[in-house]
Design goal:
about 140 residues; alpha/beta; Rossmann fold; six-stranded parallel β-sheet; 4 helices; globular
């Protein structure tokens, strides 16, 4: 089986939600993707998590992991949250980048939404390409 991660702008528009949903469904049904890694920062991560949580009823074997960069002080920690091994040794200011690299290493696919040529979404979209993941760019579909 295969795995997928996500990178997008924290302020992503809700208009892309149907695109994410169609892409995730295609990966599950046609590409055997059964494991998904999602960050916990911003609207893009929230949309991806919501879509996957809803699809889990239809595809109960799908595994969803919310990958934490820090030990949270709020309700974002749930039974599907994971804390990557050794991240506790990373200085806090580098934790999100370290977590994102970890997700890339664990994944075969990345669904990205980077409309600006700066910031984390752009940086990790390009790293996923460099690491030869199958990168699906929502921005190119619009």
């Amino acid at each position: 089986m295969s795995s997928c991660t996500f990178f997008g702008h924290a302020d992503s528009s809700l208009d892309i939600l149907p695109y994410i949903e169609a892409l995730v469904l295609d990966l599950i049904v046609n590409n055997g993707v059964d494991t998904f890694y999602i960050g916990t920062e911003g609207r893009y991560d929230t949309m991806c998590y919501k879509i996957l949580s809803d699809l889990k009823f239809q595809f109960p074997d799908v595994k969803i992991y919310r990958v934490l960069a820090y030990i949270p002080k709020d309700e974002r920690f749930s039974e599907d949250s994971i804390y990557p091994e050794n991240i506790e040794t990373v200085p806090k200011r580098f934790a999100i980048s370290w977590r994102n690299k970890w997700m890339i290493e664990k994944s075969d696919y990345a669904i990205t939404y980077a409309i600006r040529k700066f910031g984390g979404a752009y940086k990790f979209e390009n790293l996923a390409i460099k690491k030869k993941l199958n990168v699906i760019k929502i921005a190119e579909m619009l």
